[in-house]
Amino acid sequence: MHVVLSIGGSSIIPEGKPDIAFLKAMALTIKKSKNSFGILCGGGTVARTYAAAARELGAGEYEADSIAITSTRQNAQLVMAALAGAGVDVYRRVLTDFEDAKGPARDNKVVVMGGTIPGITTDTDSVLLAEAIGAQRLVNISNVDAVYDSDPRKNPSAKKFQKMAYDELIGLAASSDKRMAGTNFIFDMLACRLIARSRIETHFVSFRKMADVENAIEGKKHNGTVVSS
Ligand code: UTP
Protein backbone atom coordinates (compact mmCIF):
# COMPACT_ATOMS: atom_id res chain seq x y z
CA MET A 1 0.00 0.00 0.00
CA HIS A 2 1.18 3.52 -0.77
CA VAL A 3 1.29 5.87 2.21
CA VAL A 4 2.11 9.58 2.09
CA LEU A 5 3.82 11.16 5.08
CA SER A 6 3.45 14.90 5.52
CA ILE A 7 6.28 15.85 7.85
CA GLY A 8 6.03 19.38 9.23
CA GLY A 9 9.10 21.57 9.26
CA SER A 10 8.54 21.89 13.00
CA SER A 11 9.32 18.16 13.26
CA ILE A 12 12.34 18.16 10.93
CA ILE A 13 13.94 21.29 12.38
CA PRO A 14 12.27 22.16 15.70
CA GLU A 15 13.61 25.56 16.84
CA GLY A 16 15.61 25.84 13.62
CA LYS A 17 17.97 22.94 14.38
CA PRO A 18 17.60 19.59 12.60
CA ASP A 19 16.35 16.84 14.92
CA ILE A 20 18.82 14.08 14.05
CA ALA A 21 17.28 11.55 16.45
CA PHE A 22 13.82 12.02 14.91
CA LEU A 23 15.18 11.86 11.34
CA LYS A 24 17.00 8.61 12.11
CA ALA A 25 13.97 7.12 13.86
CA MET A 26 11.74 8.09 10.93
CA ALA A 27 14.13 6.51 8.43
CA LEU A 28 14.23 3.26 10.43
CA THR A 29 10.43 3.18 10.66
CA ILE A 30 10.20 3.49 6.88
CA LYS A 31 12.89 0.86 6.38
CA LYS A 32 10.96 -1.61 8.59
CA SER A 33 7.57 -1.02 6.93
CA LYS A 34 6.24 -3.12 4.05
CA ASN A 35 4.42 -0.08 2.63
CA SER A 36 5.65 2.23 -0.15
CA PHE A 37 6.09 5.89 0.71
CA GLY A 38 5.79 9.39 -0.64
CA ILE A 39 7.14 12.06 1.71
CA LEU A 40 6.24 15.74 1.70
CA CYS A 41 8.37 18.00 3.89
CA GLY A 42 7.31 21.31 5.44
CA GLY A 43 9.33 24.45 6.07
CA GLY A 44 8.84 25.31 9.74
CA THR A 45 10.40 28.34 11.40
CA VAL A 46 13.28 28.62 8.92
CA ALA A 47 10.82 29.01 6.02
CA ARG A 48 8.84 31.59 7.98
CA THR A 49 11.99 33.52 8.96
CA TYR A 50 13.18 33.71 5.35
CA ALA A 51 9.75 34.67 4.01
CA ALA A 52 9.40 37.39 6.66
CA ALA A 53 12.91 38.74 5.92
CA ALA A 54 12.14 38.84 2.20
CA ARG A 55 8.94 40.80 2.88
CA GLU A 56 10.84 43.27 5.08
CA LEU A 57 13.26 43.79 2.20
CA GLY A 58 10.35 44.67 -0.07
CA ALA A 59 9.63 41.33 -1.73
CA GLY A 60 6.07 40.52 -2.70
CA GLU A 61 4.11 37.48 -1.53
CA TYR A 62 5.08 35.38 -4.57
CA GLU A 63 8.77 35.94 -3.81
CA ALA A 64 8.30 35.33 -0.09
CA ASP A 65 6.55 32.03 -0.82
CA SER A 66 9.25 31.05 -3.32
CA ILE A 67 11.93 31.54 -0.68
CA ALA A 68 9.88 29.50 1.81
CA ILE A 69 9.56 26.73 -0.78
CA THR A 70 13.36 26.62 -1.02
CA SER A 71 13.45 25.96 2.75
CA THR A 72 10.94 23.10 2.42
CA ARG A 73 13.14 21.55 -0.30
CA GLN A 74 16.21 21.91 1.89
CA ASN A 75 14.36 19.99 4.61
CA ALA A 76 13.34 17.40 2.03
CA GLN A 77 17.00 16.93 1.12
CA LEU A 78 17.78 16.27 4.77
CA VAL A 79 15.02 13.66 4.98
CA MET A 80 16.35 12.08 1.78
CA ALA A 81 19.83 11.91 3.34
CA ALA A 82 18.41 10.23 6.45
CA LEU A 83 16.61 7.63 4.32
CA ALA A 84 19.67 6.93 2.19
CA GLY A 85 21.77 6.65 5.36
CA ALA A 86 19.40 4.01 6.72
CA GLY A 87 19.58 1.98 3.50
CA VAL A 88 16.07 2.84 2.30
CA ASP A 89 15.45 2.56 -1.46
CA VAL A 90 14.86 6.28 -1.98
CA TYR A 91 14.75 8.22 -5.25
CA ARG A 92 17.87 10.42 -4.97
CA ARG A 93 16.43 13.74 -6.06
CA VAL A 94 14.00 16.05 -4.31
CA LEU A 95 11.10 16.19 -6.73
CA THR A 96 9.43 19.47 -7.62
CA ASP A 97 6.60 18.08 -9.75
CA PHE A 98 3.96 15.49 -8.80
CA GLU A 99 4.09 13.95 -12.27
CA ASP A 100 7.75 13.03 -11.70
CA ALA A 101 6.75 11.10 -8.58
CA LYS A 102 4.54 8.63 -10.42
CA GLY A 103 7.27 6.53 -12.07
CA PRO A 104 9.53 6.03 -9.03
CA ALA A 105 6.45 5.40 -6.84
CA ARG A 106 5.30 2.69 -9.24
CA ASP A 107 8.73 1.08 -8.76
CA ASN A 108 8.12 1.30 -4.98
CA LYS A 109 10.94 3.78 -4.49
CA VAL A 110 10.40 6.32 -1.73
CA VAL A 111 9.85 9.78 -3.27
CA VAL A 112 10.62 12.95 -1.32
CA MET A 113 9.29 16.44 -2.05
CA GLY A 114 9.02 19.90 -0.53
CA GLY A 115 6.66 22.67 -1.65
CA THR A 116 5.64 23.16 -5.26
CA ILE A 117 4.04 26.50 -6.17
CA PRO A 118 3.55 29.79 -4.29
CA GLY A 119 0.18 30.37 -2.67
CA ILE A 120 -0.40 26.93 -1.17
CA THR A 121 1.07 24.96 1.74
CA THR A 122 2.75 21.62 2.17
CA ASP A 123 -0.51 20.27 3.68
CA THR A 124 -2.10 20.68 0.26
CA ASP A 125 1.02 19.39 -1.52
CA SER A 126 0.91 16.22 0.57
CA VAL A 127 -2.65 15.44 -0.51
CA LEU A 128 -1.85 16.19 -4.16
CA LEU A 129 1.12 13.81 -3.91
CA ALA A 130 -1.19 11.16 -2.41
CA GLU A 131 -3.64 11.64 -5.29
CA ALA A 132 -0.85 11.54 -7.88
CA ILE A 133 0.69 8.27 -6.66
CA GLY A 134 -2.61 6.70 -5.60
CA ALA A 135 -1.94 6.64 -1.85
CA GLN A 136 -5.04 5.90 0.19
CA ARG A 137 -3.48 6.76 3.52
CA LEU A 138 -1.86 10.00 4.61
CA VAL A 139 -0.05 10.55 7.92
CA ASN A 140 0.41 14.14 9.08
CA ILE A 141 3.35 14.36 11.46
CA SER A 142 3.66 17.66 13.35
CA ASN A 143 4.28 19.05 16.83
CA VAL A 144 0.59 18.61 17.70
CA ASP A 145 -0.44 15.06 18.65
CA ALA A 146 -4.02 15.06 17.31
CA VAL A 147 -6.89 17.22 16.04
CA TYR A 148 -8.52 19.24 18.83
CA ASP A 149 -11.64 21.42 18.86
CA SER A 150 -9.40 24.41 19.68
CA ASP A 151 -5.64 24.99 19.82
CA PRO A 152 -4.35 22.78 22.69
CA ARG A 153 -1.25 24.98 23.04
CA LYS A 154 -3.52 27.88 23.98
CA ASN A 155 -6.50 26.12 25.53
CA PRO A 156 -5.61 23.34 28.02
CA SER A 157 -9.22 22.08 28.08
CA ALA A 158 -9.36 21.60 24.28
CA LYS A 159 -11.16 18.37 23.32
CA LYS A 160 -9.23 15.78 21.35
CA PHE A 161 -10.88 13.87 18.51
CA GLN A 162 -9.96 10.19 18.16
CA LYS A 163 -11.97 9.76 14.99
CA MET A 164 -13.79 12.20 12.79
CA ALA A 165 -15.51 12.42 9.41
CA TYR A 166 -14.20 14.61 6.55
CA ASP A 167 -17.11 17.03 7.00
CA GLU A 168 -16.32 17.50 10.68
CA LEU A 169 -12.69 18.31 9.86
CA ILE A 170 -13.78 20.77 7.15
CA GLY A 171 -16.19 22.40 9.61
CA LEU A 172 -13.46 22.78 12.19
CA ALA A 173 -11.00 24.18 9.63
CA ALA A 174 -13.65 26.70 8.53
CA SER A 175 -14.42 27.87 12.05
CA SER A 176 -10.74 28.19 12.95
CA ASP A 177 -10.18 30.28 9.80
CA LYS A 178 -12.11 33.03 11.55
CA ARG A 179 -9.87 33.03 14.59
CA MET A 180 -7.04 35.50 15.09
CA ALA A 181 -3.85 35.39 13.02
CA GLY A 182 -1.28 33.03 14.48
CA THR A 183 -3.82 30.40 15.52
CA ASN A 184 -3.20 28.13 12.56
CA PHE A 185 -5.41 25.07 12.20
CA ILE A 186 -3.55 21.76 11.99
CA PHE A 187 -4.48 21.19 8.29
CA ASP A 188 -5.37 23.89 5.80
CA MET A 189 -8.82 24.12 4.26
CA LEU A 190 -7.83 23.16 0.72
CA ALA A 191 -6.00 20.08 2.03
CA CYS A 192 -9.11 19.12 4.06
CA ARG A 193 -11.29 19.38 0.97
CA LEU A 194 -8.86 17.33 -1.13
CA ILE A 195 -8.69 14.42 1.32
CA ALA A 196 -12.50 14.45 1.37
CA ARG A 197 -12.86 14.36 -2.43
CA SER A 198 -10.45 11.43 -2.76
CA ARG A 199 -11.51 9.71 0.49
CA ILE A 200 -7.93 9.54 1.75
CA GLU A 201 -7.74 8.10 5.27
CA THR A 202 -5.76 10.76 7.15
CA HIS A 203 -3.97 10.33 10.47
CA PHE A 204 -2.69 13.15 12.71
CA VAL A 205 0.16 12.27 15.07
CA SER A 206 3.11 13.95 16.80
CA PHE A 207 6.77 13.52 15.86
CA ARG A 208 7.47 13.20 19.58
CA LYS A 209 5.43 9.97 19.76
CA MET A 210 7.09 7.52 17.38
CA ALA A 211 4.84 4.63 18.48
CA ASP A 212 1.84 6.64 17.24
CA VAL A 213 3.67 7.46 14.00
CA GLU A 214 4.40 3.76 13.39
CA ASN A 215 0.85 2.66 14.19
CA ALA A 216 -0.62 5.37 11.96
CA ILE A 217 1.58 4.28 9.06
CA GLU A 218 0.32 0.72 9.41
CA GLY A 219 -3.31 1.84 9.86
CA LYS A 220 -3.37 0.56 13.45
CA LYS A 221 -4.92 2.24 16.49
CA HIS A 222 -2.96 5.17 17.98
CA ASN A 223 -3.42 8.15 20.29
CA GLY A 224 -3.80 10.74 17.53
CA THR A 225 -6.78 11.39 15.23
CA VAL A 226 -8.06 9.41 12.23
CA VAL A 227 -10.19 11.17 9.64
CA SER A 228 -12.21 8.96 7.28
CA SER A 229 -15.71 8.75 5.83
P1 UTP B 1 4.59 24.85 5.24
O1 UTP B 1 3.46 24.15 4.65
O2 UTP B 1 5.70 24.08 5.79
O3 UTP B 1 4.02 25.81 6.33
O4 UTP B 1 5.15 25.86 4.19
P2 UTP B 1 4.25 25.79 7.88
O5 UTP B 1 3.04 26.45 8.42
O6 UTP B 1 5.60 26.36 8.15
O7 UTP B 1 4.18 24.30 8.30
P3 UTP B 1 5.14 23.51 9.29
O8 UTP B 1 5.48 24.41 10.43
O9 UTP B 1 6.32 23.16 8.44
O10 UTP B 1 4.31 22.33 9.68
C1 UTP B 1 5.98 26.92 4.55
C2 UTP B 1 5.70 28.06 3.61
O11 UTP B 1 6.18 27.74 2.30
C3 UTP B 1 5.36 28.31 1.32
C4 UTP B 1 4.27 29.08 2.05
O12 UTP B 1 4.76 30.40 2.22
C5 UTP B 1 4.23 28.36 3.40
O13 UTP B 1 3.72 29.18 4.42
N1 UTP B 1 4.83 27.25 0.43
C6 UTP B 1 4.89 25.93 0.80
C7 UTP B 1 4.33 27.59 -0.80
O14 UTP B 1 4.24 28.75 -1.16
N2 UTP B 1 3.93 26.60 -1.64
C8 UTP B 1 3.99 25.29 -1.32
O15 UTP B 1 3.64 24.43 -2.16
C9 UTP B 1 4.47 24.96 -0.05
Write the layout of secondary structure elements.
Layout: E1 2-7, H1 9-12, H2 20-32, E2 36-41, H3 44-56, H4 61-85, H5 99-106, E3 111-113, H6 122-133, E4 137-142, E5 147-148, E6 160-161, E7 163-165, H7 166-177, H8 189-198, E8 201-206, H9 210-217, E9 225-228
Parallel strand pairs: 1-2, 1-4, 2-3, 4-8, 7-9
Antiparallel strand pairs: 5-6, 8-9
Helix pairs in contact: 2-4, 3-4, 6-8, 7-8
The structure holds uridine 5'-triphosphate (UTP).
User: If you compute it from the alpha carbons, what radius of gyration comes out, rounded to the nearest whole angstrom?
Assistant: 16 Å
Query: Taking strands numbered 1, 2, ... along the chain, how are they ordered across the largest sheet?
Result: 3-2-1-4-8-9-7
Strand content: 15-25%
- Mean pLDDT rating: 95
Q: Helical proportion?
A: 40-55%
Q: List the uncertain runs.
A: none
